[in-house]
């Protein structure tokens, strides 16, 4: 299973956007880490099972092949305060992180109508999962 946490596993068009996101957070005194970048189908299926057929909370509605992570254009992040991840997305730091990410041209999944994913940011070039599944290319 592959669940990468590095920018270089993202598409070349997405890498500078994510690096600018991290840099802009740093300039705002926000330490931001990537918790997931590229994720293979097996890892995605394991996340999908969480809270359904395995212990834990439901964290995604995407099965293998249905996540932008698998197309190397999405990251999950977490701000760090006093050496610890701030997973409580009601904390004010998350509003700052979302604003900074969107300012770098990334779509924030906290704005989604259903199943908000506060830690998820992506650049799709306007392509849907169906577009990518049929061979579409993000430019």
Q: What does this entry look like structurally?
A:
It is a single chain. With 139 residues, this protein is α+β, with helices and mostly antiparallel strands. The protein has a single domain, classed as Muramoyl-pentapeptide Carboxypeptidase, domain 2. It contains four helices and five strands; from the N terminus they run αβαββαββα. It has helices at 15-27, 41-49, 92-103, 129-133; strands at residues 31-36, 74-81, 84-85, 107-108, 120-122. α1 crosses α3 (92-103). The relative contact order is 0.18.
The sequence of SSEs as H and E is: HEHEEHEEH
CATH architectural designation: 2-Layer Sandwich
Radius of gyration: 14 Å
Structural class given helices, strands, pairing?
alpha+beta
Low-confidence stretches: none
Give the helix tally: 4
Strand tally, please?
Answer: 5
Q: Examine the coordinates and then state which fold CATH places here, giving the name of the CATH topology.
A: Muramoyl-pentapeptide Carboxypeptidase, domain 2
Main beta sheet: 5 strands, antiparallel
Helix content: 25-40%
Q: Give the number of domains.
A: 1
End-to-end CA span: 27 Å
Please tell me the overall pLDDT.
96
Output the CATH class name.
Alpha Beta
Beta strand %: 15-25%
């Amino acid at each position: 299973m592959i669940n990468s946490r590095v920018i270089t596993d993202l598409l070349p068009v997405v890498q500078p956007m994510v690096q600018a996101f991290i840099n802009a957070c740093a300039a705002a005194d926000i330490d931001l880490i990537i918790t997931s970048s590229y994720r293979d189908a097996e890892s995605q299926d394991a996340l999908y099972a969480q809270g359904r057929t395995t212990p834990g909370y439901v964290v995604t509605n995407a099965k293998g092949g249905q996540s932008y992570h698998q197309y190397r254009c999405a990251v999950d992040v977490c701000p760090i305060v006093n050496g610890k991840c701030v997973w409580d997305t009601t904390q004010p730091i998350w509003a700052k992180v979302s604003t900074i990410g969107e300012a770098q041209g990334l779509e924030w999944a906290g704005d989604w109508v259903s199943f908000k994913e506060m830690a998820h940011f992506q650049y799709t070039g306007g392509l849907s999962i169906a577009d990518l599944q049929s061979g579409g290319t993000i430019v």
